[in-house]
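Q: Could you fold this chain for me?
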Amino acid sequence: MRVLSRLLFAVSLLLPPLGVPLLTAGPAQALGNGLALTPPMGWNSWNTFGCNATEQIVKDTADFMASSGMRDAGYQYLTIDDCWMERSRDSEGRLVPDAAKYPHGLADLAAYVHGKGLKFGVYESPTYHTCQGFPGSLGYEQKDADTFASWGVDFLKYDNCTASDPNQRPGDEKLPLETRDSTMRDALGRTGRPIVLSLSLQPAAQGESPWEWGKSVANMWRIDGDRDASFDGLKRLIHTDLDKAKWAGPGGWNDIDMLGTGNYAFASGSNDPNKRLTYDQEKSELSVAAVLAAPLISGADLRTPAAAGSSGFPISDQDLSVYLNKDVIAVNQDSRGEQGTAVTTENGLNVLRRPLANGDVAVALFNETSSQAVISTTAAAAGLPTSSAGYNLNDLWAHTSHVSTDGTIGATVPAGGTVLYRVSPRTSGHGPDE
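A: Sure. Below is the predicted structure, expressed as structure tokens.
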């Protein structure tokens, strides 16, 4: 019956031709590809451009990332999302870039991105079709992996465009997602090219828990559904991630989806201020993402106003400055690789902590309410050792320092805002910056 079923789907859904091997996946194992030892940082085209990304948009984005300070701050992956390919594979079963959008092909585009000191990523799905109906990688994993490697791809965003009910999935889409993703993992490994594997899915809707098995398969995995650029979307992802710290670490990270900072596309044509983040909320987004060791993947229009033109949504200097805060990025990229956890989340007044490699602790006082509030904790609650000399509190947004002699860590935090401290025990006789 399984063979018959596959043949029927081959007729109705243009499945891989006869002779293509069925999916196989070995036992779960540590990924060990040596990549993403700290959370990946970069940009993805979808949240601003959707299916309308083009070769020129990607080149303009690469130019901006290289010249604006983003590349030097650590944002290195530039990824094009769904709709980059033609509707059909070529006669040899290979994916073909959309000739109108990418007239010079993706190998040429990857070379351009590499020439800017950046890395290049593409999108696919372990299904027969992508979310927008283009050819998926199911049954073509090795051919696609070899194609990506030949083009110079460095990052693969791997979706799961399928029915939520497993009983409604055709053919090998019924196989467990871990199995299908592992097949691509193995295919990428056989190419010999280092390619970060990012799993993009809708865990709750699709009945999946990728954080439980993701580290043996991929370098990052989504922990909830898509988010927009609203504050509500940010809060949902943060609270979903707070209980998943034990599954993250060097080489594998919980992904809270693309960052909304500087993304104005969702608010286009709308007078609803809640469709985009305020400046304080943007600082909260980067702060909490840093403490949660989440990948920092921007979804904004990262082009100059001249390149974006009248139809674009170019990022402002103020919003760009949020992405470029080197002290907050240092927390996100800390080599210890331990995801932060909550000290308290009562009444929307959150205290989050993350231990760092040098013994410091990052403490985020995150106010998700609509009113200014005092948020406070103690050094002991944040996991710091006892220090009779007190503690240095370095405010990573205000760029100021002060000493807490009794271990209190607190601040008045604006609505939607976050005060992010890097806290260290003082040594007797040393000043706050020593």
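A (continued): The mean pLDDT is 90.
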